[in-house]
Each structure stands twice: as C-alpha cells, then as structure tokens.
Design brief:
With 314 residues, this protein is mostly helical. The radius of gyration is 21 Å and the shape is globular. It has helices spanning 26-53, 60-88, 96-129, 134-137, 140-166, 183-188, 195-229, 233-261, 270-294, 297-311, and strands spanning 2-5, 8-11, 13-16, 93-95, 173-176. The N and C termini lie far apart (50 Å).
Length: 314
C-alpha cells in the first residue's frame, strides 16, 4: 500500500519480530501454538455446531455462547496463522494494509467479546433472579439486539482508532516488536505525534472496561443475593455451577485487558506485553469452549453423541 509523505510515495512494510528473542524455542513454540489453534478451531466450531443442531440448546444462554465461540474462532484465526508463519519463515514482513486490517479485526473481536460477556452476565441475572419471566424478558428480538449491539460497538471504537492510525506517517521498513499488529506497538513506530491516538485508546478501553464491569458486577451482586436466599442446597449448587464457567472466562479475559490497556502510561516491558497478549489472543479463545463444555453436562453429552454418530455413521 502507498503512504504519501512530503510529496513522495513509499511502500510501507512492517516487520513483526514475534518471538525472535527465543530462536532456540522456535520449533517448540510453533508446535504449542499450532496445537492451541487446532483445539481452538475444533472446540469453538464444535460448540457452534452442537448448539445449532440440537433444539435443546435453542435458548438465550446458548445463543450468546454460540456468538462468543464465533468471535473466539475469528479472533484466533486473525492472529495465530501469522504468528505460526513467522515462527518458520525468515521473511517476517507484513504490508501496511494487512497490518491495519489485522489490527482492526482483532480489536473488533476483543471489544465484541467484552460486551458479549457482559450480555451473558445479564442473561444469568434474569435466569436466576426472575426465572418465571425469563422467556418473556429475554425475547428473541432482545437477544438479537444485544448481540447486534455488541458487534456494532465492537466495530465503532476500533474504526475511530483506525482512522487516527491512518493519519499517522509511516515510511520504509518499520520494526514492530510484537507477534501481531497490536495498536500501541503499531502507532509507536510512527514518526508522527501519537499523543492523541494514545489518549483515545486509553479513554475507549477504560470506557469499555468500566461499562461492562458495572453490568457484570451489578448482575452478579443480584445473583449472589438471590442464590444465598435459596432454601434448596441443590438449587444453590446448580445456580453457582451455571455462573462458574462465565466467571472463569471473565477473569482470564479481562485480567490481561485491564493490565495492558487501562493503566495510563503503562511501563509494561515488551516481553510482558507479548506474554499477556498471548493469553487473550491465543489461550483465551482455546479455553472458552473447554471451560463451558467441561462444566456443562448437557454440552458434554451432546458432544459425545455427535462424535459417536459421526464415528459409526460410515
């Protein structure tokens, strides 16, 4: 892609250093990340398929879970293939247009996932605190609007940040000390003033984290209050069990996002940023289907039936 600067056009190419700091671990890291990606693809597509083909799962909770799995699959597929390629190929370059597109799509996936997790917390609140009104309150129309809103807001913020990034000046070969085109690292190699983009990112990330955290905390405050008042021990166990998977996913995902993007003038080292980024770009999309499936008897049973049917259908 051509980037114009002071009456001259030059081809801008970025170099993704990835994990070149550890050349002796190159093969090991490739095999580990490849295994993670395979598990991510099978796990998330498997969850989507099971929810789609089984009428028992055509309820709001699984509707939101299927979209969470779709976002995780997309997110991993945006980041991991390039990461794997850079571990085995000497040429670690990525074109300006490809880098900007990777940033936009990966950031959209992160923001969308944040809001989907908040929506799932609200869904659990309605299911546990108002079970008799659940089917009325969580109508198909409302569920579709909540999911659509998550996707639209997930695209809006990253698009604004992208517009500012496109105004920055880049020229020649720029070295990005990361394994994907993460926004802070991407804009840091520009020769322009990046104060405004940094400020926008901090404001946008903080708004997303605070707003979704308020929804999650408020939902679980009411949930815990309702569960504690339950007289049935089995009812309490069932309620806590349905929430445990969601809380685990939230803790893993939000912990790294908060530490990376919601601390102004963060002094995180590049190595720390890379390791933390691996958690929310590679590990989290792999863990989500495992977390929800392993703690859900219905999903495990449906998954076994699907495998058994395919294995003995020939």
């Amino acid at each position: 892609m051509m980037n114009t600067d002071s009456n001259q056009s030059v081809v801008t190419t970025f170099i993704l250093l990835g994990f070149t700091d550890y050349p002796e671990l190159k093969v090991f890291l490739f095999l580990v990340f490849l295994a993670m990606y395979i598990i991510t693809v099978i796990g998330n597509l498997g969850v989507i398929l099971i929810i789609k083909v089984n009428p028992k799962f055509h309820i709001p909770m699984y509707y939101f879970l299927s979209h969470l799995s779709f976002v995780d699959f997309c997110y991993s597929s945006i980041v991991t293939p390039k990461l794997l390629e850079n571990l085995v190929i000497k040429d670690k370059s990525i074109f300006y247009s490809s880098c900007m597109l990777q940033y936009f799509l990966s950031c959209t996936a992160v923001v969308t996932e944040s809001f989907l997790l908040a929506v799932m917390a609200y869904d659990r609140f309605v299911a546990i605190c108002n079970p008799l009104l659940y089917t009325v309150a969580m109508s198909q129309r409302l569920c579709a609007l909540l999911v659509a809103g998550s996707y639209l807001w997930g695209m809006f913020g990253p698009f604004v940040l992208l517009c500012f990034a496109l105004q920055l000046t880049f020229s020649g070969y720029k070295i990005i000390n990361h394994f994907f085109c993460e926004y802070t690292v991407l804009i840091s190699v520009s020769s322009s003033n990046i104060h405004v983009p940094h400020l926008l990112l901090f404001g946008f990330a903080t708004f997303n984290e605070v707003s979704t955290l308020i929804i999650i905390l408020a939902s679980y405050t009411f949930i815990f209050g309702t569960v504690i008042r339950m007289k049935s021990a089995s009812g309490r166990r069932k309620a806590f069990s349905t929430c445990a998977s969601h809380l685990t996913a939230i803790t893993i995902f939000r912990g790294t996002i908060l530490s990376l993007y919601c601390v102004p003038n963060s002094k995180n080292s590049r190595r720390t940023v890379k390791v933390a980024s691996v958690f929310y770009t590679v590990v989290n999309p792999m863990l989500n289907p495992l977390i929800y499936s392993l703690r859900n008897k219905d999903v495990k049973q449906a998954f076994r039936k699907l495998i058994y049917r395919n294995a003995f259908s020939h």
